[in-house]
UniProtKB/TrEMBL annotation:
<dbReference type="InterPro" id="IPR023214">
    <property type="entry name" value="HAD_sf"/>
</dbReference>
<keyword id="KW-0378">Hydrolase</keyword>
<dbReference type="InterPro" id="IPR023198">
    <property type="entry name" value="PGP-like_dom2"/>
</dbReference>
<dbReference type="InterPro" id="IPR050155">
    <property type="entry name" value="HAD-like_hydrolase_sf"/>
</dbReference>
<dbReference type="InterPro" id="IPR006549">
    <property type="entry name" value="HAD-SF_hydro_IIIA"/>
</dbReference>
<dbReference type="InterPro" id="IPR036412">
    <property type="entry name" value="HAD-like_sf"/>
</dbReference>
<protein>
    <submittedName>
        <fullName>HAD family hydrolase</fullName>
    </submittedName>
</protein>
<dbReference type="InterPro" id="IPR041492">
    <property type="entry name" value="HAD_2"/>
</dbReference>
<dbReference type="InterPro" id="IPR006439">
    <property type="entry name" value="HAD-SF_hydro_IA"/>
</dbReference>
<dbReference type="GO" id="GO:0006281">
    <property type="term" value="P:DNA repair"/>
</dbReference>
<dbReference type="GO" id="GO:0008967">
    <property type="term" value="F:phosphoglycolate phosphatase activity"/>
</dbReference>
<dbReference type="GO" id="GO:0005829">
    <property type="term" value="C:cytosol"/>
</dbReference>
<dbReference type="Pfam" id="PF13419">
    <property type="entry name" value="HAD_2"/>
</dbReference>
Length: 233
């Protein structure tokens, strides 16, 4: 294994509740802009309950593409552009919370000392990732950062990893991905990566990480998983 790619929110840092606020605001704006027959039923279907979001719903763990499809279905029309533009505007205006999960920063430094290349693959925008790197003074800890803008590929689409494979001489089987949702794990499957490590420090429960090769409490245990993987292969 040469590269270890980490999701950001819920994996490197504590789950950022500003994302939940954005999700609720996006749904409320959708319902205000495109009235539906049964507002309460739509809220439940999208996963919004009393201004909170169910982790296993499309709003809780779905990709932007999946949210777009859900909004199209609920409105009965193509609201793709509105959804992407509104989502990006909300993301750009949010005030992020950037608190490292205990021990994860030191773990990354130890992996770097062992010779691994370290990257971030996140659904956050470039602005959000830059804020994280600046606030935590951790820019030098990462060899590659892949963010997701409104009209770009996103996890679990393997195209999201083009910046890695276009600029570095590495085979997919020599890349591991670490994340807190099954979309992270599906990225491993779709891109034919070597290893998918699910963490329980974010929004997913263990039984939801169905495509993970290993499931651990937090990313602090990633080095142990890598040793097991190396011994078994």
């Amino acid at each position: 294994m040469e590269w270890i790619l980490f999701d950001k929110d819920g994996t490197l840092i504590e789950f950022d509740h500003s994302w939940e606020k954005i999700g609720v605001r996006l749904v409320n704006s959708f319902l205000d802009t495109f009235p539906v027959a049964n507002k309460e039923a739509t809220l439940r279907k999208l996963g919004v309950v009393k201004d909170t979001i169910s982790p296993d719903s499309v709003m809780g763990s779905g990709s932007l593409d999946e949210i777009v499809h859900a909004f199209n279905d609920e409105s009965g029309k193509d609201v793709s552009k509105w959804t992407r533009d509104t989502s990006q505007a909300l993301v750009d205006s949010r005030e992020p919370e950037n608190n490292w999960i205990d021990g994860v920063y030191d773990m990354i430094q130890s992996l770097r000392q062992e010779g691994y290349k370290i990257g971030i693959v996140t659904s956050d925008s470039e602005k959000g990732v830059t804020q994280f790197l600046e606030e935590t003074h951790s820019k030098d800890a990462f060899d590659l950062v892949i963010s997701t803008e409104a009209h770009a590929a996103e996890k679990p689409n393997p195209e999201v990893l083009k910046p890695l494979f276009d600029h570095y001489d590495v085979k997919p089987e020599d890349v591991a991905i670490v994340g807190d949702t099954n979309n992270d794990m599906k990225t491993k499957v779709n891109a034919k990566l070597g290893l998918a490590i699910g963490v329980l420090s974010g929004i997913a429960k263990k039984e939801e990480l169905v495509d993970a090769d290993y499931v651990i409490e937090t990313a602090v245990s990633v080095p142990e998983v890598l040793k097991k993987y190396t011994q078994n292969n």
